[in-house]
Write a structure and sequence with these properties.
The chain is an alpha/beta fold. It has helices spanning 44-49, 73-82, 113-124, 144-155, 176-192, 205-213, 235-250, 285-292, 316-336, 339-344; strands at 7-8, 16-25, 28-37, 58-63, 85-90, 136-142, 162-166, 258-263, 299-304. It has a single domain (7-344), classed as 3-Layer(aba) Sandwich (Rossmann fold), CATH 3.40.50.1820. The chain is 34% helix and 17% strand. A nine-stranded mixed sheet has the order 1-2-3-5-4-6-7-8-9, with helices on both faces. The longest helix has 21 residues, at 316-336. It is globular and about 60 Å long.
Length: 345
């Protein structure tokens, strides 16, 4: 792992963070922030027996979604408990990386995040182009982060061992003909009014659903970094999203196995109801499933009954199911990537 200055993170409990300088733009200094949780060192008896877990050489890199940041301590502890090194990236102008005077979350091309990811991998001891000689990488992305990592993995073949997507935003939630019309309008408006905010369509129901099903030991959400309603949506940013989604529709051919995890059902939240604590109220699951077929050569699907948009923040039973499926998926990916398994193929 390259030399970095790591300091205690706001999450406490063994979490650390490091700032990744990314130069500057017309809004000033640009940084990303990498958070880590390392596994506990092996016990004396494990060292004596030279015991290693399936995950001893695994690094996990998590990327959050739109209007979000990393705060899922339970998810990090799951991976660290298996022996993996867990890292989470707050992208530029999100969460820990947001600076005064910046337009939150704003980029005009998702490939801009290649710089953030390259900086994160460098801090992890990786080379974004060549990978790592003796470690394996699992990419884990939620919602817009799932789209971002999918595009990155397609542009960087041979680096990731596996890609796990938690309700990825792979397509606009519109009919195909309407989608094309919206894309055309966005292309024009992103050139003329790129930072003109659109109407606020989020009623705060998803945030309320998460709060309703939260467990006592869940980390409280920082509403400055993850507001009740989403951050403003700008034409230039949404055009970047649509361009990325169009690349998915054209076919990405990701060479690593991909697992897409979603809720079993969606609902359009026009008003609050208890149903919203058991469905994806942000994206349309059927659209995610259809778009997932364009991701790569090997795509697995896990649909979780009663799950929210972030399946790992769902009500207890759905959350436990999500972790059971994650465990099976991770072991399947990593067992298939072992040298012995490769030689038998």
């Amino acid at each position: 792992m390259s030399e970095q200055t790591w300091i205690p993170d706001v999450l406490g409990d063994g979490f650390e963070q490091t700032t990744l300088p990314l130069g500057s733009d017309d809004e000033g200094e640009v940084v990303a922030t990498l958070v880590r949780l390392l596994p506990a060192p092996p016990s004396f008896w494990d060292r004596l027996r030279r015991k290693q877990t399936l995950f001893h050489d695994v690094d996990v890199l998590y990327v959050h979604g739109w209007s979000d940041y990393f705060f899922q301590k339970r998810l990090a502890r799951y991976w660290a408990g298996l022996g993996a090194r867990f890292f989470a990236l707050d992208l530029r102008k999100y969460g820990r990386s947001l600076r005064a005077g910046q337009t939150a979350g704003y980029v005009t091309d998702l490939s801009t995040y290649d710089e953030d990811i390259a900086a994160a991998l460098g801090a992890m001891g990786w080379d974004a182009a060549r990978g790592h000689s003796d470690r394996r990488l699992v990419l884990l992305g939620h919602s817009t982060g799932g789209l971002t990592l999918s595009l990155w993995a397609a542009r960087h073949p041979g680096v990731a061992t596996g890609v796990i997507l938690n309700s990825p935003w792979l397509t606009l939630q519109l009919p195909q003909t309407t989608r094309a019309l919206v894309a055309s309008v966005l292309s024009w408006s992103s050139q003329h009014w790129p930072t003109e905010p659109g109407p606020q369509l989020d009623g705060g129901f998803y945030t309320r659903a998460q709060r309703e099903v939260a467990e006592p030991d869940d980390e409280p959400v920082n509403l400055d970094w993850r507001p009740e309603q989403t951050m403003p949506v700008y034409a230039g940013w949404l055009h970047a999203i649509v361009q990325g989604q169009n690349r998915v529709q054209a076919g990405l051919d990701i060479d690593a196995p991909v697992c897409v995890m979603t809720s079993a059902r969606s609902a359009v939240p026009l008003r609050w109801s208890e149903e919203l604590t058991q469905v994806d109220s942000v994206l349309v699951v059927a659209d995610i499933v259809q778009a997932a077929t364009h991701l790569g050569r090997t795509v697995w699907l896990e649909r979780i009954d009663g799950a929210l948009h972030d399946v790992f923040l769902s009500q207890h039973d759905a959350r436990e199911d999500a972790y059971r499926r994650l465990d099976l998926t991770a072991r399947r990916m990593l067992t298939a990537s072992l040298p012995e398994a490769t030689s038998r193929a």
